[in-house]
């Protein structure tokens, strides 16, 4: 019996990788896995791989929580050609987490957790089966990675070391103050401007995280690392309104104060 030749490789997919056309000039990439954390980590890694390889014709990368949108010049490259290039890049560099993204910077975000600024902290702690102090410790000892910039340039971060998933609000709030530090699942986000949310509020930073008077309006980008630091309410006035900036390594021991002033 003559053996049948193996089926031709599909250039739009390699093990663990999915690539789908998204309009005429974009490709949606993702990781085929049942574990959402694997999908999130893989999407971040895909972005790092493409930033390193910089495939011909690619114009822009738009990070999602579990996906990566690759915009390209459709006159320079096709969906299939780009998918093949991505497949080869992944085969060469791998999807394993290679550590911090190229050029990633560190941010330390001070936050106040008074009753007014952290209305959902007691409920989050109860849901996780922790004390409020232990809940905050889980947040402040976590090194979070910015996955994407959400609505109004809000930094959406993954990697909170909670022992379980935090649910969203049963009834979303219609107006949350800017600077609110919020959690859902094992992710965190900071509200840049007043607006609605279904995430649970467990603190507030006095810093301004998005300012249209600055160029660029935000100092952070996907791949950057964030840690939170609880400060007393008495420290609010000194930091209020200052623009969030990355900290130098020596500044991290000082809660990012000098970094916020830079």
Characterize the biggest β-sheet: 7 strands, mixed
Number of domains: 2
Order of secondary-structure elements: EEHEEHEHHEEEEEEEEHH
The total of helices stands at 6
Tally of DSSP β-strands: 13
Fourth-level CATH superfamily of the largest domain: Cyclophilin-like
Helix percent reads: 10-25%
Give the class-level CATH name of the largest domain: Mainly Beta
- Overall SS class: alpha+beta
Q: Span between N and C termini?
A: 74 Å
Mean pLDDT: 86
> What is the CATH T-level topology of the largest domain?
Cyclophilin
By CATH, the architecture of the largest domain is named Beta Barrel
Low-confidence stretches: 1-15, 252-262
Proportion of β residues?
Answer: 25-35%
Work out the radius of gyration. 21 Å
Notes on the protein architecture:
This protein has 262 residues and is α+β, with helices and mostly antiparallel strands. The chain has two domains: 17-93, 2-Layer Sandwich (Gyrase A, domain 2), CATH 3.30.1360.40; 106-261, Cyclophilin. The protein has helices at residues 36-53, 79-93, 121-128, 132-140, 236-239, 257-261; strands at 17-21, 26-31, 58-63, 67-72, 106-111, 144-149, 155-158, 173-176, 180-184, 187-190, 195-197, 200-204, 225-230. The strands form three sheets. The protein has a seven-stranded mixed sheet. Strands 1-2-4-3 form a four-stranded antiparallel sheet, with helices on one face. A hairpin with a 4-residue loop joins strand 1 (17-21) and strand 2. Helix 1 (36-53) packs across helix 2 (79-93). The longest helix has 18 residues, at 36-53. The radius of gyration is 21 Å and the shape is globular. Residues 1-15 and 252-262 have low confidence and may be disordered.
